[in-house]
Amino acid sequence: MGRARRARKIAQAAAYGGGMGVAGLGALGALGYGILRGEAMMARRIVGQHFEGAPSDSGTYGSGSGSPLRFLVLGDSTGVGMGAEHPHQTVGATIASGVAAFSGRPVELTNVAVIGAESTGLDEQLERGLAAVPQPDVAVILVGANDVTHRIDRSIAVRHLEMAVCGLREAGAEVVVGTCPDLGAIQPVPQPLRLLARRWSRDLAAAQTVAVVEAGGRAVSVGDLLSEAFSAEPHVMFSKDRFHPSPAGYARVAAALLPTVSAALDLFGEGSTPAEPNLRRGESVGPLAVAATKAVTQPGTEVAPAEVGGQARGAHGRWAVLLHRIRPTVPLPALPALPAPPGRPAAPSAAPASDASAPDAGTTSGTAYALGDVDPAPTEDTDRTDSAHHAGGTDERPAGGRAEDPVLH
């Protein structure tokens, strides 16, 4: 069964109260489960002990005229900021500071995320959040990793996420969800657990995307967002437990979410002029399940509700737009060789550094955001790239694409 179809079935089961089995373990025999359990225990010893807590980032960010924007954060330890050393280093605080700068208004952040939370815990978080902020302007949810590691039934996890999005939308909030990170990218986790964790994570992320967009929210793929940077600088991007992001890692996650949060708040005029997908960058409008499947392998990709011909649904279900709000690096042509002074060899051609902030026709929000390379090539609805990578094969994506390993929680 392809990932798009699995995502639709999980989301449908969530909507109608069915069950799809725990996060991938239903198909494994007792022997396989025993192996995985032993390897999971080994991975926990390698990763190390969790931190005692995280800094409290609730408060007011920025200044300016006008009433404050009310911002809620829900989710797990990534939403809390475990691994951050200062309140201003969390995902919520970084987004709040960015929104305050773009809007010229202060932002009041209320963080109700809980360390170790599963999607089933969003019910209680939503109740606390709306009690503190009855009419939030925007909410960010970061959840899913613990649903995979604790083997929660995916349809149950998705159902609780969808209910949280619906509750926030009914309260008048714009909702942005950072979907399940790719746990198969975590270096200390051995095989075959890493391969299975990658598949479970991506299946859950795709199903989350379908449910979130159906509920009127926007989903942003977190995926293996830190993998390339972690490979190059593991001690910079990850905290001392080798599992949670460091302040630099959280800044990277926040940078992926900030453009979508800003667009949801209509800070760049998209309310009157919606962003048009740029086909050259792999953006498109199509069936929601297909967009969700592409997004899970392309970190930083946004999937949001869309209409075609004035209709929200087509023959294959809900329409959705897929946008790469993180601009990819665009190679610039080499400069011509400079003429050599008398008696000296000619200077070689020089390629100028790419200016990631330069205006580009593919910018969807009207403002440039630079975070690194994003491979815009469409991804087929299969797990072939996973299998090839973990079997020692070659990843067939174009040169310059994102490496598969490692990590984010």
Rg measurement, Å = 21 Å
Overall pLDDT confidence: 74
The CATH H-level superfamily is: SGNH hydrolase
Classify the fold: give the CATH topology.
Rossmann fold
Shape: globular
CATH architecture: 3-Layer(aba) Sandwich
Tell me the domain tally.
1
Total DSSP E strands: 10
How do the SSEs run, as a string of H and E? HHEEHHEHEHHEHEHHHEHEEEH
Strand proportion: 5-15%
Helical percent range? 25-40%
What's the end-to-end separation, in Å? 27 Å
Residue runs with pLDDT of under 50 for 5 or more positions: 16-33, 328-333, 347-409
In this structure, how is the largest beta sheet organized? 10 strands, mixed
Number of helices: 13
CATH class: Alpha Beta
Structural class: alpha/beta
Description:
The protein is of the alpha/beta class. It has a single domain (3-324, 373-390), classed as SGNH hydrolase (Rossmann fold, 3-Layer(aba) Sandwich), CATH 3.40.50.1110. The protein is built from 13 helices and ten strands. Strands 1, 2, 3, 4, 5, 6, 7, 8, 9 and 10 form a ten-stranded mixed beta sheet that branches. Strand 9 (313-314) and strand 10 (317-324) form a beta hairpin. Helix 1 packs across helix 7 (154-170), helix 1 packs across helix 8 (193-214) and helix 7 packs parallel to helix 8 (193-214). The longest helix has 22 residues, at 193-214. The radius of gyration is 21 Å and the shape is globular. The model is unreliable at 16-33, 328-333 and 347-409 (pLDDT under 50).
